[in-house]
Specification:
About 75% of the residues lie in helices and about 0% in strands. The protein is mostly helical. The chain has one domain: MetI-like (MetI-like fold, Orthogonal Bundle), CATH 1.10.3720.
Length: about 220
């Protein structure tokens, strides 16, 4: 049993979660402040959550393949996305972003608008309001979204195998390693990787519940 899938999975999940964190919070703020087309924007961002991951991977393949406009443009700079580690990160970001976005947006919308209004009345800048009012008051939701996004990226399979492939030592994650082991009739190896994924997921979800419980969030909002 080689540990390459574990290292690739952790590296992919960490990088994807960092990107998802900033994208999710930014989109949550932007959509929450929209006055028009809010429903449409919400539906587009949430779409990867309800689509089959293989469909997400297929459209990523179409968008960044060598025959696409983006793919041809990137090739001019000798940049290839498909079937690389970068593709694995992009797939993980796309499928985990809705979780971070919806959780952060829900947390932001529960903040009393009077608090924000009072801060603006005092002349506090929007940047300071974001970091000193919004984030502290929404920290439990943001932490929950962060952990959910990480665990989703950790177990991503469909979009990854379509867009990044299953190249050992390059794009083979633990999820795709399980698939490869089953295809090779090596059920013992598949079981080992499945157990590792379950352990990691349980650990991070448990940590999230501990952190949320210490912030005083009601039991109904825990996972």
């Amino acid at each position: 049993m080689t540990y390459a899938p574990l290292l690739i999975t952790l590296k992919t999940a960490v990088v994807a979660t960092v990107a998802t964190f900033f994208l999710g919070i930014g989109l949550a703020l932007a959509v929450a402040r929209m006055r028009r087309f809010q429903g449409l924007a919400d539906a587009v961002i949430t779409l990867p959550l309800v689509l089959p991951p293989t469909v997400v991977g297929f459209f990523l393949l179409l968008a960044f393949g060598r025959r696409s406009f983006i793919g041809r443009f990137l090739l001019q700079f000798d940049i290839t996305i498909v079937f690389t580690w970068k593709a694995a990160v992009m797939a993980a970001v796309i499928v985990s972003l809705p979780l971070m976005y919806r959780t952060a947006r829900g947390a932001f919308e529960q903040i009393d608008p009077n608090i924000l209004g009072a801060a603006r009345t005092l002349g506090v800048s929007e940047w300071r309001i974001f970091w000193h009012v919004l984030v502290p008051n929404a920290r439990s939701g943001i932490l929950a979204g962060l952990v959910l996004a990480f665990t989703r990226a950790l177990g991503e399979f469909g979009a990854t195998i379509m867009f990044a492939g299953n190249i050992p030592g390059v794009t083979q994650t633990m999820s795709t390693a399980v698939y490869a082991a089953v295809q090779a009739n090596d059920y013992d190896l598949a079981f080992e990787w499945a157990v590792v994924i379950i352990i990691f997921s349980l650990v991070f979800v448990s940590l999230m519940n501990i952190v949320i419980s210490r912030t005083g969030v009601p039991q109904s909002r825990r996972l």
